[in-house]
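Fold it.
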Amino acid sequence: MRVEDFDYELPTDAVAQAPSEPRDASRLLVLDRATSSSGLPTLTEGRFADIGQWLVPGDLLVVNDSRVLRARLRGRRIGGGAAEVLLLRPLPDGRWEALVRPGRRLPVGSTVELTTGDTLTIGEAVGEGIRAVTLPRHPVELMTEAGEMPLPPYIRAREATDDRYQTVYADPPGSAAAPTAGLHFTARLLDKLAAAGIERAAVTLHVGLDTFQPLDGTFVDEHLIHREWYAVPSTTRRAIATARAAGRRVVAVGTTTTRVLETVARTGEAEGWTDLYIVPPHVYRSVDALITNFHLPRSSLLLLVTAFVQDGMPGTAPLEARNTLLAAYRSALESGFQFYSFGDAMLIA
């Protein structure tokens, strides 16, 4: 399959620039795979606050509880020019992988002074466009005092408060971008779902660089996905096993959760690094329904969702499933849905 097969036209004004208020006031598009066909999705529109209408007692929501770091650090280079460092993840030697701007003017050994007076030392390249950076003190402490939330580059408005780019259940710090499907949940909605018999469990995947990257190359199999660290606690593993043994649904909240669950289903490893790249066709072993946002054209996330649509439409070819998903996207655009991180949501069942 070609990368261009997963392109679509997106008007600029369909990219959400601010989150819904409250969180669960966002809109919801429900796609029923079982009754859909190629290019003809079965769709229902609603509000995220009412997502319980499409869930049943015994469903197990699995969320990604990773907390977004204040990983964007702004400072000055020697000579006075502005510089920016986006921390991605720790290296074994204690330094951090980072995106550095302007990279050409920050050779190995150069420094960036932050507004707090802290000094970062720029090291060698450790990947395409990625540098090793030495921090002067504990990274979380430094980011808390000197950092900014790493809002995606397509968000032009910067007025959103930090907590709106963080899920209400965020716990262990480590992500360079939010697991955005979870941004729609409020504490009140989660309580309401729990009272209705909807169970919840958590995994952790620290979202990294690949969130920002389009597909490489001409063909989808030419793309290399970056590794991301994950962990699945024993309580979550037991909850999933119990649900599946009882024939109850596992509902993944987001593509990051999906990658964790599918990784564990294949490797049996409850903790580690995953570079699982899900493309159609893909047989999903651990996910029965998916809550997700609307994704970038030519992205690995669009491929993952296409694969999930196909998996629920027996006898459907990958490009037929793509036709179904992109028809749903066109319907959403015609109805005024908002896309990407602060946009609206889909439930694919």
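The chain has a mean pLDDT of 95.
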